[in-house]
Amino acid sequence: MKPIFLTQFLIEEQRKNDQCGADLRLLLEVVARACKRISLAVGKGALGGVLGDAGTGNIQGEAQKKLDVLSNDILLEANAWGGHLAGMASEEMDEPSIIPGEYPKGGYLLLFDPLDGSSNIDVNISVGTIFSVLRAPEGIDPADSKAYLQAGATQVAAGYAVYGPSTMLVLTVGTGVHAFTLDRELGSFVLTQSNLRIPEDTKEFSINASNARHWEAPVQRYVDECLKGKEGPRGKDFNMRWVASMVADVHRIISRGGVFMYPLDAKTQAQGGKLRLLYEANPMGYIVEQAGGAASTGRERILDIQPHKLHQRVPVIMGSKNEVERVVAYHREG
Ligand SMILES: O=P(O)(O)OC[C@H]1O[C@](O)(COP(=O)(O)O)[C@@H](O)[C@@H]1O
Ligand SMILES: [Mg+2]
Ligand SMILES: [Mg+2]
């Protein structure tokens, strides 16, 4: 079978649907190229001198890893000259970054979590990059964070790269979810799965169980019932997985089903949750919905949330539709 490269695939998308114009295609190709460079750096590990702390902190109050900073720089650099962007926002930057004056400006905004799963970098476990594309609103300066405060449902594209045993790029431009694998010899992303669908039912849940004593009652009830297995009210046994890299946990769910949860708990109550709405919940939520799954805070659809600040955090429950709806129903029952 002749390989289908990312560029080819995007040209086909451009032909088939007017949502994926030349500018968006170019943007996605530039992001893919940046992910290739990040994959190379991650792959070098200790040999590349990229492990360990950067000695700096970010607006999230986290100590930055060298790879957080390097990945952020790679994405900024790659996209600065492109002509398809008006501005960028990142989990690792306090404020948006605009395209330097001398460069042509485009009609899109790019938002990204340059390195997801930072706690796994130094122990050689899969990490990734998550990105979201919005239209640049008329009349708002792209240096103003207000330009980025758009509901997830308005995204024109979203994707993630997962740097695991192989490097994969998974994306949607609103016409389903498609996965590409990096052919290291060719240095190109090749289409390996198209129109991925998440099974509506599952026997696998994913949550950091060390937070159990902090969970709200609906989540406690849901997990307890899963743990009771076939002797319990669910009448079937459940498996549990937690990689602690959202990209890897959600990629597993996109590949074989499951439900991923980082719910609101007593520890994260004050900040509204752990994961970031614009860089993590919205892009992953869009991809999950495009693959037939659901994405909720437990109380509302994530893609309907009107963001009010750049680094806003939200509770996240996403994956197999019927399982997410069950967790939402438990929240409704209180
Ligand atoms: O350490 P915990 O509580 O298991 O949290 C893990 C979660 O935190 C994250 O690492 C946060 O993302 P970053 O690594 O981009 O900060 C998610 O990828 C992951 O799902
Ligand atoms: Mg992250
Ligand atoms: Mg990150």
UniProtKB/TrEMBL annotation:
This is Fructose-1,6-bisphosphatase class 1. Mg(2+) 2 binds at residues 113, 116, 280. Pathway: Carbohydrate biosynthesis; Calvin cycle. The lineage of its organism: Bacteria, Pseudomonadati, Pseudomonadota, Gammaproteobacteria, Nevskiales. Binds 2 magnesium ions per subunit. It comes from Stagnimonas aquatica. InterPro entries: FBPase_C_dom (IPR044015), FBPase_class-1 (IPR000146), FBPase_N (IPR033391), FBPtase (IPR028343), Fructose_bisphosphatase_AS (IPR020548). Residues 6-193 form the Fructose-1-6-bisphosphatase class I N-terminal domain. Belongs to the FBPase class 1 family.
